[in-house]
Amino acid sequence: MTSGFEDWQVPVNIVGQLLTELINRPKYGVPTTLFYGDTVSPNTMQNMGLISGKGQIYGGFVSWHSTGECKETGILLYLDGVLTANYSPLTLYNWSILRNGLFFIFLLHYDNTYKLFTIGFSFPISFETSVQVFIDTYDDQDHEVTMRLNYAVV
Q: Peptide bond preceding 42: is omega within 30 degrees of 0, i.e. cis?
């Protein structure tokens, strides 16, 4: 016969433990949005933003359209200097990465008729030193690009 508290009913006594602190929510600052909006030339890797410090991504998106074949344009996400995602809408579509939480990025909109694509950032994603986002255009036409990345740092 088992005895004691159920897992969800265990009382916490911070004084009676060896813990220096008990964190019950992220200790990050005020939510901020990193904006990017510009025309990106064909066959270009464009830096869309850098966040320095320790923090958490709360979500966001990158959206673009072009008159050319832009479904293979890729989004590169670097967390703490490490490339964690480098995928195009076509790849995300083929792999069915279509909702938050499956991967670092996911497909929000895929319209190859009007050449409009949107990739979302999953949440929460924590980082210790930095976040950097690039768009890598594979096309012979300009891309109209918009990015919104919601985050907070310590």
A: no
Nearest Cα residue to 119 out of 68, 75, 53: 75
Element (H, E) at 90: helix 89-94
The full length of the chain comes to 154
Cα radius of gyration (the chain): 20
User: Which three-class secondary structure state does DSSP give residue 39?
Assistant: strand
Distance in angstroms (rounded) separating the CA atoms of residues 94 and 135: 19
**pTM score > 0.70 for this model?**
yes
Average pLDDT over residues 65-84: 92
Each residue's pLDDT tens digit, 81-101: 999 999 999 999 999 999 888
Of the candidates 49, 45, 46, which has an alpha carbon nearest to the alpha carbon of residue 60? 49
